[in-house]
Amino acid sequence: MKARIPIAFLGILVIGCAASGGDALLPATQKSQSKPVVQKKRTKASKLVVPTKQGKVVSKKDRKGKVQVTKRKPGPFEGNAFPPTLSDLPYHQKGWKKNDCLRCHETGVGKAPEVHHKGMPKRLLTAKCRSCHVRIPGSKAKVIKKDPKGFLGNAFPPMIPNSPSHKGVWGNNRCLLCHDSGIRGAPIVKHKEMPRILLKAKCRSCHVQVRVIDVKKEGH
Amino acid sequence: MAMNRRDFLRTSAMAAVASVAEGKALASSTLESSEVTWHKSVCRFCGTGCGVMLGIRDKKLVALRGDPKHPTTKGLVCAKSLFLPKIVHAPDRLKHPMIRKNGKFVQASWDEAMKLIGDRFADSIRKHGPDSVAYYGSGQALSEESYLANRIFKGGIGTNNVEGNPRLCMASAVGGYVSTFGKDEPMGCYDDIDHAKVFFLVGSNTAECHPVIFDQILARKEAHNDVLVIVCDPRKSPVTSIADIHLDPVPGYDLAVFHAMAHVIVKEKKYDADFIAKQCQFKIVENGRPKKVDFEGYVKFLDQYSPEQAELISGVPAQKIVEAARLFANGPTMTFWTMGLNQRTRGVWANNLMHNLHLITGQIGKPGMTPFSLTGQPNACGGVRDTGSLCHILPYGRSVKKAKHRAEMEKIWGAKPGTIKPKPGKNTIEMFRALGRNEIKAMLILTTNPGQSLPNLTPYRDAMGKARPGKPFIVVLDIFPTRTTELADVILPAAMWSEKLGVFGMSERRYQYQPALVTPPGEARPDLEILLDFAGLLEERGVIPKGYVSSKLKTCDDVWNEMRHASKNTAYDFMGMTRDRLKKERGIRWPAPTIDHPGTARRFVKGEDPILDHGPYADDSLNEGDIKFYAAKDYRATVWLRPALGPAEPVDKEYPYILSTGRVLEHWHTGTMTMRAPELKRAYPEAYIEINPVDAKKLGLRNRDMVRITSRRGEALIKARITGMPRVGMVFVPWCWEDTNSLINRVTIDAYDPGSKQPEFKICAVKLAKA
User: Fold this and answer.
1) Contacts of A152 in chain B (CB under 8 A)
2) Which chain A residues are within 8 Å of B4, Cβ to Cβ?
3) For residue A91, is it within any domain?
4) Residue of B445, B450, B505 whose CA lies nearest to B476
5) Cβ distance B276 to B270 under 8 Å?
6) Terminus-to-terminus CA distance in chain A, angstroms?
7) Taking the domain B171-373, which CATH number applies?
8) In CATH, which of 3.30.200.210, 3.30.70.260, 1.10.1660.10, 1.10.540.10 is domain B5-88?
9) Do B82 and A173 touch (CB under 8 A)?
């Protein structure tokens, strides 16, 4: 499936939407997974729900009968009470059926939101993303035009995912075996207009491999 | 325009990658934004000295890319450098002075903090004498900062207790250069990479620790089929991926290999008899004194180190040694080494033997032929070695032991004659031992992290931070909270790299100017300003002469100009390196005695080295291209006959494994800076110990098992990585992580080289157990 997307839009604006860590592409209900999800049913205050590690409902009424919700520090996976959804962007439409989401979302390449499944059981990390995530047809991503942290877009080298296809080749300078020819569906890398000496350089000199994805995200 | 996901991936990858180069590709629309101005500077990390361009917007560093116009690094930078913008603007920078009160740090004003420092130092000097205070600096401080600190302590206070972390990384290289050639610093340059046909990489994980140098070696090897690489390293580090010959001696027993290579060169008559006759002398130490021997004496000495004998000592197959020796002698050969040779109790000797190989084959002073010690810090060479900011030396090749040199510096500094003491101060390890005995009462620590980087860490952390009667007063200047700031009595927030101006001097003698482009966070100030204030406080309190610093030095430029004059008519002469020149040019290699001198690629070569044309070392009798080791005794470099002794702590039944420490590409030293870039941190978020599969099987260890590493000094708990990289019987741990379990320097040994006083980080005996 192909979509008509201007490069500038993709390269600078759309992909910039995730600069703050990934909330931008997600529907509002799934933003800021580190915060507790409080789902209000306005009709009855007694149904205020605060998911906890134990899955208990924590709400109580004060003396005046007003419902008080105790916000606890969220458990490791508390925010994901429901499967996270994804926007219906062109690169999700085709990539959706593959299991290569982490090529972008582990590394932040193209400013894709970095995914940090902190606290998720290891077994789940090896599962197909689609097992949990739901794509909502027709949904759109929020576009943030400027990196809110103030660093220039594309100022940093792309991360390299810790995918199975990279196992054993890291450090051997054999990246171009696939990335020069596009074999096995590897993105072809053409370091256009880069000084020749850089093309001879070991890829790892500039590229950083992401080795784990469950490290706490830093503040910037 | 139609685009599918794959196209998108390609596009975005290209755009991002291109940004590190010229910035003319897809990324250009962002990078060349009119709001952003680009400025020439130099990288903050290792001693390669990569030229960088800094993108500044609103006094904020928003991007960094390699400087393609840089004459030696040619636009290359490594991943660490690319993340410097995020490191500079990391949220946990130190922003305010802090004073420890009742065991807790309390924010203080600059006035309060500096007054306290002035009082405590002055009090200590008055009551206990000048040697009761000390300075511990850094190869990351700017040249002007190290020079000024040295001037305050040696020429003002009158103590030689001036040290710096280059003692932990470069001291053996200094000892090697000085004992062989008479003066410190490499005679060759990075240009030699473009001429060499054989690269001898010894005890150097160049691919990870100096990736830009390695990239250039790789580029040369890929472009020329006849370029060969010999690697000497007990660990199969990434450099071995391009090795034609890999020599893997048992750690600590490589001296026999180097002698055996010399043995082969001599036996097969591949030596340069003419060069040896004109330029070399041979010496052996007997009864503690050097004694001259002749070439035949050297040949006889080498008889005990045949390749077969070396194989027995080192474990390296004799045939490999023979092949390596032949390649080396064919040349042109360029040798690079770093901590694998330097961080040893026989570090100076190992350095001497590297020089021996070059001297007997005459491979010095010609394109592609040079022994080159790589530096781990950006300014260990220019900032500490050249400015003489160690306990036994004075600026620009002078020694505290020589009355003439002391008098020269006292005159330049305006110090009272006799202020500089003739006895060297305490070296780093002895300084921290004295701190533990409360003999040193006050210490100023600047831009370094001894609370993590010293070997046998536990007693030295106690020395700095353990509460006790008479505990010394510790002041730390730094940019981030570290394992050292937590031990301090006063923490001063320093400006970082692009927030202050000054000069870095990297491995090939190139001095490069770094402009101040970014506003420091909070109340952070440049170290030089802090040192000027510190000197002023000591003047006020009468412990250094009134006006000793304050009447002469007010700005960084004043300090630089004094430094230039201090270098005049020395072997380092850089009088021609004015601030204006440095601002315009992309570094200048000393000697550069006049304003129109382009800098010197190769020292000791008539026609290239201006020291042979003018000044005290001038010699008009030489022809163009002739070599003269003008700083060496009798103008001859020394080939040393050093016995092939082993490490300080060999393995035994109780501690059967050899521990070696090192680094990874993505992190630098104690990780203080690189751990602040989330991407770099995620690349290597936790410490690991490399264990050979044979040993792992014996110990019942599997990948990611927690391993208890125990030595006679302490222990660490680190996850196992089972890999064939270290040889059997050896384990390897990078030392970049600061969490208590990962502090591998609690395990390492503080035995040090008797000549260079550099500790043996690279070798100690440990036992392993599954935790």
Assistant:
1) 30-31, 33, 36, 55, 57, 62-63
2) 1-3, 90, 94
3) yes
4) B445
5) no
6) 35
7) 3.40.228.10
8) 3.30.200.210
9) no
Give the pLDDT band of residue B169 (cuts 50, 70, 90).
Answer: very high
- Separation CA B683–CA A106 (nearest Å): 11
The tens digit of pLDDT for each residue in B104-158 reads 999 999 999 999 999 999 999 999 999 999 999 999 999 999 999 999 999 999 9
Other C-beta atoms closer than 10 Å to the C-beta of B577 total 27
Enter the pTM of the model: 0.85
Of residues B35 and B100, more confidence is placed in B100
What is the rounded CA–CA span in Å between residue A106 and residue B235? 31
Return d(Cα B238, Cα B246) in angstroms, integer: 12
What whole-number distance in Å separates Cα of residue B415 and Cα of residue B386? 20
B202 vs A33, more confident: B202
Nearest to A125 by CA among A215, A219, A23: A215
Percentage above 70 pLDDT, chain B? 96
With cut-offs at 50, 70 and 90, classify the pLDDT of residue A58.
low
| Interface confidence (ipTM) of the complex | 0.73
Which residues of chain A lie closer than 8 angstroms to B17, CB-CB?
157-158, 189, 191, 194, 206
Residue whose entry in the numeric block shows the structure tokens 């390269």: A11
Question: Which residue in the set B13, B85, B91 is minimally distant from A155, CB to CB?
Answer: B85
Assess whether A91 and A124 both reside in one domain: yes
CA distance B244 to B229: 5
Residue A220: inside a domain, yes or no? no
B585-595: average pLDDT: 97
Q: Given the structure tokens 């560093």, which residue do they identify? A: B61
Residue A213 with chain B: CB contacts under 8 Å: 682
Q: Topology of B657-770 in CATH?
A: Barwin-like endoglucanases (2.40.40)
What is the dihedral angle through the alpha carbons of B630, B631, B633, B637, rounded to the nearest 10 degrees? Answer: -80
Contact B379, B616 (CB under 8 A): no
**Residue intervals in chain B for CATH 3.30.200.210:** 5-88
Answer whether B21 sits within 8 Å of A159, measured CB to CB: no
Q: Which residue of A has its CA nearest to B36?
A: A152
Q: What is the DSSP string of B385-397?
A: ITTT-STTEETTT
Please tell me if residue B37 touches chain A, with a CB cutoff of 8 Å: no
The predicted structure's pLDDT at residue A98: 66
Q: Go through chain A and tell me how many residues it has.
A: 220
**CB A110 within 8 Å of CB A59:** no
Q: Whose CA is closest to B576, among B558, B599, B553? A: B599
A vs B, Cβ pairs < 8 A, gives 230
- What's the rounded Cα separation, in Å, for the pair A71 and A50? 7
User: Among all residues of chain B, which has the CA nearest to that of A154?
Assistant: B16
Query: Looking at this protein, which amino acid is placed at residue A210?
Result: V
Active site residues of B: 80, 169-170, 339, 376-377
Residue B473: pLDDT band by 50, 70, 90 thresholds?
A: very high
CA distance linking residue B165 with residue B480, whole number of Å? 18
The percent helix, strand, coil of chain A (3-state, each to 5) is 30, 10, 65
Give the CA angle between residues B632, B638, B639 to the nearest 5°.
165
pLDDT tens digits for A63-72? 667 766 655 5
Least CB–CB distance from B13: residue in A189, A208, A211: A189
Query: Using a CB-CB distance cutoff of 8 angstroms, which residues of chain B are in contact with residue A7?
Result: 1, 3, 11, 26
Nearest by CB to residue A152, choosing from B10, B63, B66, is B63
- Cβ distance A197 to B219 less than 8 Å, yes or no, reads yes
Angle, CA of A54, A59 and A62, to the nearest 5°: 150
Residue A219 domain-assigned (yes or no) = no
In whole angstroms, give the CA distance from residue B703 to residue B85.
35
pLDDT at B341 over 90: yes
